[in-house]
Amino acid sequence: MVLSGGNGFLGSFVVEKLRLAGCREILAPRSREYDLREKSEALRLYKDARPDIFIHLAAVVGGIGANRANPGRFFYDNAVMGINVIEAGRIAGVEKLVCAGTICSYPKFTPVPFREENFWNGYPEETNAPYGLAKKMLLVQLQAYREQYGFKGIYLTPVNLYGPRDNFDLEISHVIPALIRKCFEAKQARASEITAWGTGSATREFLYVEDAAEAIVLATEKYAKPEPVNLGSGEEISIRDLLEQICSLAGYEGSVRWDATKPDGQPRRCLDTSRALAEFGWRASTALRDGLRKTIAWFEEEVSSGSRTRGV
Length: 312
Prior knowledge:
Elements: E1 2-4, H1 9-20, H2 39-49, E2 53-56, H3 64-69, H4 71-92, E3 96-100, H5 129-149, E4 153-158, E5 160-162, H6 175-189, E6 193-197, E7 203-208, H7 209-222, E8 229-231, E9 236-238, H8 239-250, E10 255-259, H9 274-280, H10 288-305
Parallel strand pairs: 1-2, 2-3, 3-4, 4-8, 5-7, 6-10
Antiparallel strand pairs: 7-9
Helix pairs in contact: 1-7, 2-4, 4-5, 6-8, 6-10, 8-10
């Protein structure tokens, strides 16, 4: 088995779950070993590893700021990596390919909860549309290859992930690690105020990374249909309420200034995950507050121990 992105945030947990499930032969190559943006490199990986299953998790990702700063890179790198991995898998005759998509592919004004049937009913939210559309094209490719070549590929659509080992770099991180770091640093500096992007009114759904990893392993084992499958927690929360929880759990008692000149992003996000439950018996088990507590504790331990946490 091969996992692209197997050394990353999500991938590292998927590797652990696979090993717990009894999988022993797992290759998680780094980009410096195989640059999947090059078709020849993707073909070389399949030739060297000869996997029966390929889980494609590698991606160039970030929060709203990173998406606004890198729309071209985020589109090209994510599209071409996926296209090469799928095409090389077809050529190599891989038995099954599992592809991780993104909630960013959904239309901007999708009715809540987002159902897989709504996937094509509009254009994604502008700040992350290039990334979302690049990942969305991989679903098209998988379905086209299934129809023409009998290629066995599945597509999973997770919401925003969070948890230990995330990227806490304020320039490129997603909202939860960014807010955790802001609260921690403000507390350390005894700052009376922190600044948060947007108005706080947008809502999001967050999935604890270990729950996501469990879903990917179950889908790899049990799911074989062409339709995409949502992966989420079912908990919708406003960014304002999210920050209140993080401040409370992190012990920060200062005030929050909302910078409305910065974008909120998509107005609402929350997935219907009934298909995942019906098809491979998965539902998230970690409540948001519990996951936040674990993530904050991990971050504080990394900082206090002097570990080289990404972005710290």
